[in-house]
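Section handout 9: paired folding examples.
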Amino acid sequence: MFDSFVLLTPALPDKIVSRYFEHYLRKCVSDLNRQINFARMKGRFSADNERSLSVLPIIYESFLEQGIRKKLPVEKIDPKWDEETLETALHLYEAESRKALSKQTQEDLLSTYSSLTGETLNDEEHIAQLRAERFRARLRALQSVQAGHLPDTEQTRHMEPNEETPVALQTPSPECASDDKAPPPEIEPQETPAGTVISSPEPPSPQVERTSKSASKNTCKTMKKLENYFSDARDDALTATPDTWSDDIAHIFWRTSVENKMSKDVAKQRGSDIRRFMFITGISKVTEIKQAHLTHWSDSLQKFPKNFLRSAKDLHRTIDEVYLNAKHLPPNERGLDSSTVRRHVKSIELLIARARAEGNPLPELEISGLKPKKKSSRNKHKSRAVFRADEARQLFSHPIWTGARSAGRRHEAGTTLVQDGKYWIPLILAYTGARRAEIAGMLATDVQIIDDIPTFVIQSNVYRGIKGEAADCDEADKLTRMVPIHSQLIDLGIMEYAESTAHKGHTLLFPDVVPAPRKGSKRSPTEDLALSVEKFGERFDDAWRKAMTIALKGNRRKLCIHSLRHYVNHTLLHCGDVLDVTRTDLVGHIHSEGDESINTSTYRDETPLHVKRDAIEKLPRLM
């Protein structure tokens, strides 16, 4: 086969190929940035877009390593991909391979070559050379956009497809290098296949170096470095004596966590709040805090992305990169909500109170004024829309619950019915009134038959807790509740599903709610990936919202998944023969002191299971 390729002319000189690569790389980076920013500003940048951006580099690596084929090579398929990612990869590979060999792409390739050289290209080998450069440029552009920087085109052309951007191209400041306790490595000259030597990049000019020094206090810190810094400081902070107490923020925080008897989860959240303060202000000593820092920090919380730290990439971004990304987000995706800001302020209040108690000389600092005012709790139940029975029926007429085109196209009508987390979790919420995380994080063994009644046992486990239950509470104080399973769910096969899931060796009832880690992420080596899930049920948010928008024709009343909990509570509340204590035991409301009389809160036992079953069956069938 190879002998049949007659090579009549010499290959294109490396100088010309490099010129084409540089030109196309600049175009690719510019186009990708513009497309992504436009999609974000139009509110169209979804999980599907993220998924496509994650698999496209794999496709171009395959083109360069294994050539253009009709289907994605099996060895490029990651066994950890979920069904949607696999289908996206297969579809994009076919689309990109057709596009690469299309007449339009070849005409564009020839036109670009002519505009750069003034010559006409007609040799098939030369066209193949430039096609490879397009793949290489496209790959490097995708990687650079994801990493948040534009690579040096001359060096990156000669890197392997899966090689990371050289450290030298990132031009760290001297202070950044000292923070990592290692100088930036020297880059050896690289020799191209044609013999052209690419020298190391020149050192930064004095002006650039001065700028880097002035900015390094903030820009060289990342949340990942701060996490490591806090972790390393813990033992020293807790074993220190009053004579050796330091004004280090991390040390004071750990002593604050002990003084205030914070549970593990609370300490984790408070620590994250403190690290964000340090991330924004660049301060590491409590004695450095001034009123201006507090004001700047408070203002900055109003422009932070709401989804900051939901992606592992955020751990490695500098503060400037976070602000730059937030700048392109729509207003409703920027700024923390008032309750979250109040929590952040409280975390700083506790830190400063402990610092003063330890004798640190601090100026007068006004903190309480930074707290947003609490909204009135009057008619608070009206702030979130409640599903009506007809709306719930309309929702569950969507293809996810009636039959879809395929497992990867759940929003198009068809004959494929996939009974997974996307299918079961909303249905169970509509027949229990539970919270999303309570159901999404259930174990397969939490579906039981108690006193001959099929029952969901909603209780804390190693993966997630229950709202209102302390992480270290005694067995007697646990908020476990038994909710009988509605007959509609039994008819749909929930008992068989639970038995099958347990038989397959899955611990969780819905193992598909655990996102597969991206290649090379910090979650990749984790033995039990479910332990790293922070909010159970988030993985299917996009599918859920899209299903509601389609089924409810735009969802004008802005119903959400929590609206199903309100629907169950509202329905039972207006059933004259369902007592309030029964409803409370079913939906698990957390009452503040004084909400219940002593007769209904103390001098009573749990509602009998058969009484709960009768109440649950008052909920109408929705399918």
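Moving on to protein 2 of 2.
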Amino acid sequence: MTRSDKKMEINKDLQREREKCTFNIEEMTSYIDGGQENTKKRRETEAVLSKPEFCNDSSQDYLSHTEKYELAIKQSVELFSLLRKFQNERNFSITDDDYRDVLTSLLGSSTMRDGSPLGVHYIMFMPAILSLGTSEQQKYWLPRAWSCSIIGAYAQTELGHGTFIRGLEATATYDPTTQEFVLNTPTLTSYKWWPGGLGRTANYCIVIAQLYTKGKCHGVHSFIVQVRDEETHHPLSGIKVGDIGSKLGLNSVDNGYLGLDNVRIPRSHMLMKHAQVLEDGTYVKSKNSKLNYGAMMFVRTVIVRDTANFLSRAVTIAVRFSAVRRQCQLKSGEPECQILDYFTQQHKLFIAIATCHAIRISANKLWETYNAFNEELEAGSLEKLPELHALACCLKAVCTSDSTTLIERCRLACGGHGYMLSSNLPLTYGQATAACTYEGDNTVLLLQTARFLAKTWQSLDAVKLTPTVAYLRNTREKGFLNKWENTIECIIRGMQVVAMRKIQTSVEMLEHRVLSGIPMEDAWNMTSLQLVAAAEAHCRVIILSSFYENLNRVQTTSSPELKRVLNQLVELYTVYWALEKLGDLLQWVPISQKDIEGLKLWYEQLLEKLRPNAVGLVDAFDLRDEILRSTIGAYDGRVYERLMEEALKNPVNAEPVNKTYHTYLKPFMMGKL
């Protein structure tokens, strides 16, 4: 059932919660989507992609690893056939803007409970060709990939190397006599490991390998390799390919391994938008080696947005469950109260609601920066590349980490019922936590941002500051924050001071160690804890500032009721992080004990103000039951009925006595084993 089913019987507690809501839920949904027209388009997409026959049934939890894959393929083919039809009807072109719309539909509207074997084809394979292929290569490969005439994977990570891309061992050696590249994985640790869809689905793969030509290594580059026959699907000669096995989550996705033994591909199968190998083997280097990571930056922008989707699902489930679940008495003689009435429960959940909005707004900022960079790149300018790289790194790291932490908090807030797979909270956590590792380990990504911040600090007076670091010059001036006030503006200024001081002290420590004779590499390693903390603090400033600035932009277009609740969410998010980072604030800004007590009281008052709107706020995420796939988070609130219905689907309950009673248990109990 969905919220559009007028005959749906709603749990009375949940219905009362909706009646308390002080703002127009439809207006909030439109705000989240970026306008009524976007809401309309999204709902049209979801209506197509949410048909029951395309939804993973929770009975898949009792299937084997192979059976889960087979079911996922069946449903993915049906689902993506509709998506392909939808693309054609809307005349989508293969451009970054249109492609983001497709990915938003794919990720935000997906009814696949535990991922799709075709996901990486859309999320990695095609974006890599868009970012790294010449116009001729795009003209050849993208129509085939867009129509799913071929299915692609993306093989970068190896068994022995992940985030350290420069250390990859797979090789691609150019043979000028045949104008071919010869690809090899010369060691066990050089086998590609983890590519989604490669295990059993993909017949092509983008392989990241060390390029050798004329006896010299030119670093990692991207190559399109056919791994399976287009007719029989059998692995080609020299290809060793298979599935790596069960994982914490995403078990409908066939993550694979790939070994290459003298596999030859045409010269034209190297993606050559930024660097080329000429027919005679001459290497033409890129203007900037980081341009080869364009696909990764695109995907990181998608990941940040997707992170908000996962969190919105989890908090919707947890808030609705908390409105239905009654536990203990606040006062003797009264009925058991809704657990949503407990401030401890509100503390767990309301920050998750606010974080959904904060991450979504940050994702939009990242996408705007990415688009601006692409426009300048077309004009031959690389000026924005360092800032984009640093921004994508820290937002991916912080947003995925925060989201995963809060999803687990939502699961714990639902007690034992949240531990059930049918709640969909464990599966949501499994999908979200994977993002903390893929597309760059979060710690390493924060160190990448720290490198940008260190260079910026060392040249602070000599260069024009880019937008995300413009605050650094102001905050170091004496008098920037002489007096503390418990306001949003002051908290953001305080967090800017914290970030600036962390960057300053980490750079000063790094320079001190180098001057004392410690090699730069060792000094960087010894200072890495401070550098990571500085990068995180910088990212907090970006998220807080973006959230607050967005609120100011919508003030003139929204109703007073919506503005009020949005303001409360911004305040809650800002005060929450001020309290979380009190140690830093106490170290660097003039905040007093009285101020801290005021912050705590402010936070508690915000919880109280948001309480009547809790269910309305998650309803505004407008998540269909087919997307939530949760026994305890459905729109109707029939938690206990749905849990029992799912228990009865358990194959173990199909017979009153399991055969092991007679073969093992009974003899054991009678002492006759």
